[in-house]
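Researcher: Next entry in the queue.
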Amino acid sequence: MQTASSQKRAHQPVVTLVPIDASSDITLHEQIYRALRDLILKGTLPTGARIPSSRMLSDELRVSRNTVLTAFEKLASEGFLDSRVGGGTYVAPVLPDEALSIASRPVPRQTNEVSLAMSKRGKVLSGADVEWATLHRRAVPFRLGAPAVDVFPFDLWGRITAKLLRRRSPQIFGYGEPAGYPRLRRAVASYLVSARGVRCEPEQVFIVEGSQVALDLTVRLLLDPGDSAWLEEPGYPGARAVLQGNGASIVPVPVDAQGISITTGKRLDDKPRLIMSRPLINSHSASR
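Model: Structure for this entry, 288 residues:
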């Protein structure tokens, strides 16, 4: 459990970004309101971030608690903050439309910015045209990276997490096995045999943070710069970014009703080092 002093240290960066000018004609609560609103719009305080309590903020800023509460109430009424009874105050998960339009306006580049000397790979990656959808946006068909949150077992997950945390085992906070938690790898290997017919040993299973990390690791292991790789067109933009970043020679191959067109691919490049294509899931392929 965090002590009061440790909590203050944890929130100190936010406090230092809320300047107070007692000599200003702008009221103190308005100054706090504007500072917090700007931090939210700039993303310094991201959606879901916890805000220091009104008592803590008033102590650090040396203003009355009512002053801070007035600023909080204004932010909450405009949709920037979400207060939870007994649970603290957080940045709202979805910002108001007007705020989003303000935040999306381009910020003029400062002429005195320090130029960052990027590697060739870094320049390629920074130029990749990839836009990731976030979960708080409106749901649309075929959106990438959106799990079935409505069927996730939150209660069971919470009980298991609480049970593990109560053990206070040092292993929970260590690095663990580089390839992933051994019991999870065994479970995955067992599932692949029964559900997909894939015969593999737990030692052949690697747990990574997500599909993008898996793609990058696979490409780095299999391709050298300049090697050709088929990529279905249209295809997954994240795969294109990984191939570009690792210096692959991308061969766009069109897709048909069966997926990537092998016939067309052979005509374009008959010796690819790698073919990147998503398998079709339908009644025919699922039954095989």
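Model: The beta strands are 50-51, 81-84, 88-91, 228-233, 249-256, 259-260, 274-276.
Researcher: Noted, moving on.
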